[in-house]
């Protein structure tokens, strides 16, 4: 693993150290996987660096996360050779540090990011909030709502959205059934778990899981569902960029 120059180096002082981690509350950290290629997005390069509202998508994401005062620091995971953060201006607030340890899957990037976070001084019993670089419309108040709901929970949880539409099951391009949606949610991020528990769960579950909650579920846990916002969508397809830009413009007015 190589460490790219941090855009705001994490030192013990900057990370708001505690005298003895066993005697005080666990700290909270952000982890932003930023090593995807955005293959569904139609963008020329990795979608997280596409410019929206005057700056790269990931900088909007980091601005919102860094505004969460309870975060001790934010670990960003980029691909080997990614130089974007060498010239990026760090957001105000929680310190951001970057590791070029992206994996071939999102789960791999998160697992490597957890190791980087532990190397930076985080403890296994600390909380980590994993948040997609591609969810650039997250707000500090969404994140604080998740923290408030999960900080005293035994397992942790995630932001998620109840299904707004009727849910259909498909077979051969036609409706095979209408599925009861009363107990269905769309998983978002951040997803908040203890660093050690998440690390063990991801190792057990393997690379195929598409979110942190799935890894915890794999080891028999039931993460808490916390109501998110429809605006916290993941920029995935070509048409999502214009929608995200419109929301950012509306917020700026
Ligand atoms: N190997 C990977 C794959 C994804 N991600 C990150 O995980 C987040 C959510 O993933 P997704 O939207 O699926 O991003 P991509 O994998 O980049 O998109 P696609 O699946 O369309 O290629 C993104 O911030 C992405 O950068 C990552 O860090 N490492
Ligand atoms: C983690 C996630 O954002 C939850 O909705 C999502 O699963 C990641 O995206 P992917 O397309 O499944 O990789």
Automatic annotation (TrEMBL):
Domain of life: Bacteria
Site location (Positions MEP for the nucleophilic attack): 181, 234
Any one GO molecular-function label of the UniProt entry: 2-C-methyl-D-erythritol 4-phosphate cytidylyltransferase activity
Pathway listed: Isoprenoid biosynthesis; isopentenyl diphosphate biosynthesis via DXP pathway; isopentenyl diphosphate from 1-deoxy-D-xylulose 5-phosphate: step 2/6
EC number, as in UniProt: 2.7.7.60
Catalytic class of the enzyme: transferase
Role: Catalyzes the formation of 4-diphosphocytidyl-2-C-methyl-D-erythritol from CTP and 2-C-methyl-D-erythritol 4-phosphate (MEP).
Record HAMAP family: IspD (MF_00108)
Family of the protein in this entry: Belongs to the IspD/TarI cytidylyltransferase family. IspD subfamily.
Protein name listed in UniProt: 2-C-methyl-D-erythritol 4-phosphate cytidylyltransferase
Organism: Rhodoferax mekongensis
Gene that encodes it: ispD
């Amino acid at each position: 693993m190589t460490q790219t120059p941090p855009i705001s180096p994490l030192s013990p002082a900057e990370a708001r150290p505690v005298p003895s981690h066993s005697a005080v509350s666990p700290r909270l950290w952000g982890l932003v996987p930023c090593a995807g290629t955005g293959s569904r997005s139609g963008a020329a390069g990795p979608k997280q660096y596409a410019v929206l509202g005057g700056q790269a998508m990931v900088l909007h994401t980091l601005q919102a996360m860094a505004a969460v005062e309870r975060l001790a620091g934010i670990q960003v995971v980029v691909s080997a050779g990614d130089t974007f953060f060498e010239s990026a201006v760090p957001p105000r607030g929680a310190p951001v540090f970057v590791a070029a340890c992206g994996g071939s899957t999102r789960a791999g990037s998160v697992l490597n990011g957890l190791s980087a976070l532990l190397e930076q001084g985080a403890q296994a019993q600390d909380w980590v909030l994993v948040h997609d670089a591609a969810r650039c419309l997250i707000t500090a108040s969404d994140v604080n709502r998740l923290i408030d709901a999960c900080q005293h929970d035994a397992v942790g949880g995630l932001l998620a959205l109840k299904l707004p539409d009727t849910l259909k099951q498909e077979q051969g391009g036609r409706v095979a059934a209408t599925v009861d949606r009363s107990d269905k949610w769309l998983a978002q991020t951040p997803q908040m778990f203890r660093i050690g528990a998440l690390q063990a769960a991801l190792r057990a579950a393997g690379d195929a899981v598409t979110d942190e909650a799935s890894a915890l579920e794999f080891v028999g846990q039931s993460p808490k569902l916390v109501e998110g916002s429809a605006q916290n969508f993941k920029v995935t397809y070509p048409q999502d960029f214009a929608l995200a830009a419109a929301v950012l413009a509306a917020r700026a007015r």
